[in-house]
Design goal:
Elements lengths: L5 H11 L6 H10 L6 H14 L3 E5 L5 H8 L4 E6 L2 H13 L5 E4 L2 H6 L5 E6 L6 H11 L1 E10 L18 H16 L3 E6 L5 E6 L3
Parallel strand pairs: 1-2, 1-4, 2-3, 4-5
Antiparallel strand pairs: 5-7, 6-7
């Protein structure tokens, strides 16, 4: 039986999607080698936002602000985003100002910043330090996620290295192991319904059951 080749599927999807959303930011990211969400991942999240209709969104890992702007455009949610890098946070804030959006940007280490938040969130997007995904997930679950809330983690297949030992770079072994443990952990949680979607660089979607 023939197996689907994800590379030619991704290429096909990119060819048929006409993407005008913040195109200059995507070009900047490609030029400066700044990782932002894949185009097919963005299209999927647009649909997820339309279904979930969150009122509050937390993003862990802002980079240049591309995903925050996507969330702002395709939801009516109040958005809080956390970015460690002062340089990236500055670029992101400039982009928020350029598009005249009201997004709460916190320039701090995510572990510290999370402890200072005192509100609940309906939708949480994790795209930061891959080795800390489990910590982010657990902290958000226990302290910040509303019942029925959604936690989405991006880049969970890590360029395919999570799926194939032959692809793993020696210097990335620890990250790959932690991501594998993270995926095993969230899929075994009884209080969440989790799906792993093999689009972009891999997305996990965990929906917290309502009490």
């Amino acid at each position: 039986m023939n197996r689907i080749n994800n590379e030619y599927i991704s290429s096909f999807i990119e060819d048929i999607i006409i993407d005008y959303d913040f195109l200059e930011l995507r070009k900047f990211a490609e030029k400066e080698n700044v990782p932002i969400m894949k185009l097919e991942s963005k299209e999927f999240l647009k649909s997820l936002l339309a279904i979930k209709r969150p009122k509050s969104i937390l993003e862990i890992g802002t980079a240049i602000g591309y995903s925050s702007l996507v969330f702002d455009k395709y939801s009516d949610a109040k958005i809080t985003t956390i970015e460690l890098s002062e340089h990236m946070a500055h670029i992101a804030q400039e982009n928020f100002n350029k598009y005249n959006v009201d997004i709460n940007l916190i320039n701090d280490d995510a572990e510290k910043a999370l402890t200072k938040l005192n509100q609940g969130f309906d939708f949480v997007f994790i795209d930061a330090n891959k080795a800390n995904y489990k910590f982010y997930f657990d902290y958000v679950d226990k302290n910040l996620l509303n019942d029925g809330g959604v936690i989405v983690a991006d880049n969970i297949l890590f360029r395919g290295e999570v799926c194939n030992d032959d692809l793993v770079e020696k210097r990335k072994i620890t990250i790959v192991k932690r991501l594998r443990n993270f995926l095993a952990y969230i899929t075994l949680r009884d209080d969440f319904k989790t799906s792993i979607i093999p689009i972009g660089d891999g997305i996990s979607i965990s929906i917290k059951e309502e009490k």
